[in-house]
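Protocol step 4 of 6: structure prediction from sequence.
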Amino acid sequence: MGKYFLSIFLLITGNSIIAQVDIELLHKRWTQAFLNDSNAVVPIGLTRGGLDHIIFSEDGELTFEGAPMCGIGLNYYGDWALNSKDSILTLRYTSKQDKYPGESQIDETEVYKIEKLSPTNLILSELNSKDPRRLFWLYDSK
């Protein structure tokens, strides 16, 4: 009887348990990565322009550090919000800073579905876009 009750309980509540995202796992600095042939998120390695990084602060601040691209990196700043029940991540950029023109105010929003969030991997699928992207990130311990 106990196994039967547990099975019904998991069937009823399982979807909501699985769909929940642990917001604490986002509070990190993530480095651009890619998905290899074995479906593992792995480091990109050396690139000419460098790698992108994204930082989700606990206070809701967002920093996107663009690749240095030979010394001319572009950073975006703003805030982020997570609907942990639906795994929807909204990034709102309010300013950007380039090495030469300086800082400028912007209003850009990107919405993603979190496909995977673990202590070391983050996979995002862009929503509301004509050309949706999948983004892959690894935890950056630096």
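Step 5 (inspection) to follow. Strands lie at 29-35, 41-43, 53-56, 61-65, 74-83, 88-98, 102-117, 121-127, 134-139.
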